[in-house]
């Protein structure tokens, strides 16, 4: 199948130019001005539009068994929602249940994801440290095509790992050429604050935020950075939500450490006041970890994206219906943590970022696609409008308007945390694997159209991180010993 996209402006992370794009059998084969259409090609007029590499969401949880229920968007509907919003690839997390092997988790996720309508890849969670974990990580990195390992520093008694486990696992990542990731919140302190609040009869959803203040995230982020440095590994901090965490990352980068930070679109535009809404369902719908923050933190996150101290924007898409959220009606600790966003990320970021002048179009492409592909080792197959890249593209109309509304969404949940945000700038067409997946409100991609994208380990130079190296190769000291009578 051959498609020629004519008359648009190609936006890459490093440059933009007027160019036509020729696609053959799922791959971009030419990017140049004035291309002529081969016989039989479908021609798409992209006049007035930008041509962007498809969005990559590096952080989703489709059909995740979590907090006593299962997240409502499965791989079929979560990826269809993604395509409607211009995202052509997601990266989800394989999370082994307690005592379960990584191999089993991988097989379960491969099975669940057969329904995916767009391309997808996985991270693997390390939820305990045993000899089996140590051994399995090699197969995960080298055979399964998963070069990223996620660690939860929160969810005490469930997924949380301690510093010993972090150090072991980060060291193993360094040896394998893998990138460790952290959910950085101090789970012990969160647990204590939750107990204290509940003890005072504070059961409402706003207490979710009060039990997870920015300090618990700042402390854990800083700790993970220091542990990664001592283990000689780089580090990727998921859902960086506050100034304290951003500052720890910026400080580390200024000291030469390879540390990456991932704000979510939710934290960039929604604030803690959402939890004080008198409607319980409204507030509970917004419960996620880390929680939405007081407004001043948003300025810090935007500044990080602008300056490059934060590199990517994700969603942590983990959707639960109103009914599911009611599991925590009498106890905020039982409200399933998670919000949606995979369908809305690009539109909201364009409106609040590009249209306000905070981000250039090229920076938008960097943080929604190219930087993610580079950090996850799939660039330039993904993340670029370039010859040889997969034809995952968005024909983006910067003048198209859309007001976000749950009524019109593809996601299976019955609300939207961005409800009512009026966006200017939206997809006209999403192409996935060289086919039109979505056009002008009509979803064409089907269940199962997506493919698993393996991500090999990184070259050794990527993990040569450490200021600790000078300590890890001890130099012998010649010393005269005191004579003890
Ligand atoms: N945070 C959420 O809000 N949901 C899923 C997991 C997480 O860390
Ligand atoms: Zn199967
Ligand atoms: Zn998390
Ligand atoms: Zn997550």
From TrEMBL:
UniProt xrefs under Gene3D superfamilies: Metal-dependent hydrolases, Urease, subunit C, domain 1
Species annotation: Bradyrhizobium denitrificans
Protein name, per record: Dihydropyrimidinase
GO molecular function: dihydropyrimidinase activity
Hydrolase as UniProt keyword: yes
Family designation: Belongs to the metallo-dependent hydrolases superfamily. Hydantoinase/dihydropyrimidinase family.
Cofactor(s) annotated in UniProt: Zn(2+)
Annotated EC: 3.5.2.2
Enzyme class, UniProt record, top EC level: hydrolase
Superkingdom: Bacteria
């Amino acid at each position: 199948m051959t498609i020629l996209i004519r008359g648009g402006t190609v936006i890459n992370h490093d440059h933009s130019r007027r160019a036509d794009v020729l696609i053959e059998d799922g791959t971009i084969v030419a990017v140049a001005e004035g291309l002529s259409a081969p016989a039989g090609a479908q021609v798409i007029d992209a006049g007035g539009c930008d041509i962007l590499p498809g969005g990559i969401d590096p952080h989703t949880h489709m059909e995740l068994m979590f907090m006593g229920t299962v997240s409502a968007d499965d791989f079929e509907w979560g990826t269809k929602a993604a395509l409607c919003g211009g995202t052509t690839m997601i990266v989800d997390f394989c999370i082994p249940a307690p005592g379960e092997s990584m191999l089993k988790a991988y097989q379960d996720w491969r099975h669940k994801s057969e329904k995916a309508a767009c391309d997808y890849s996985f991270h693997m969670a390390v939820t305990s440290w045993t000899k089996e974990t140590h051994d399995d990580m090699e197969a995960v990195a080298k055979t399964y095509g998963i070069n990223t390992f996620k660690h939860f520093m929160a969810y005490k008694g469930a997924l949380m790992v301690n510093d010993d486990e972090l150090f072991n696992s980060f060291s193993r990542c360094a040896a394998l050429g893998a990138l460790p990731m952290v959910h950085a919140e101090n789970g012990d302190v969160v647990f204590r604050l939750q107990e204290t609040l509940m003890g005072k009869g504070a059961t409402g959803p706003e207490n979710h935020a009060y039990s997870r203040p920015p300090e618990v995230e700042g402390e854990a982020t800083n700790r993970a950075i220091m542990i990664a440095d001592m283990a000689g590994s780089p580090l990727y901090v998921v859902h960086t939500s506050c100034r304290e965490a951003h500052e720890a990352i910026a400080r580390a980068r200024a000291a030469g450490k390879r540390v990456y930070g991932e704000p979510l679109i939710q934290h960039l535009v929604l604030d803690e006041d959402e939890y004080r809404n008198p409607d319980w369902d409204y507030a509970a719908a917004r419960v996620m970890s880390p929680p939405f923050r007081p407004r001043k933190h948003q300025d810090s996150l935007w500044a990080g994206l602008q300056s490059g101290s934060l590199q990517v924007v994700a969603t942590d898409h983990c959707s639960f219906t109103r009914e599911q959220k009611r599991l925590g009606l009498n106890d905020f600790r039982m409200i399933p943590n998670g919000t949606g966003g995979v369908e809305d990320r690009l539109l909201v970021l364009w409106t609040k970022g590009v249209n306000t002048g905070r981000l250039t179009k090229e920076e938008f492409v960097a943080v929604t696609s190219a930087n993610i592909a580079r950090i996850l080792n799939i660039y330039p197959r993904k993340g670029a409008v370039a010859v040889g890249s997969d034809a995952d593209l968005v024909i983006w109309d910067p003048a198209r308007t859309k007001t976000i509304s749950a009524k019109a969404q593809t996601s299976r949940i019955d609300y939207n945390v961005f409800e009512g945000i009026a966006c200017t700038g939206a997809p006209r067409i999403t192409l996935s694997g060289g086919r039109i997946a979505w056009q002008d409100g009509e979803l064409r991609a089907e269940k199962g159209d997506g493919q698993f994208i393996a991500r090999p380990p990184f070259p050794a130079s990527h993990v040569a991180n450490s200021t600790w190296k000078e300590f890890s190769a001890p130099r012998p000291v010649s010393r005269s010993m005191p004579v003890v009578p």
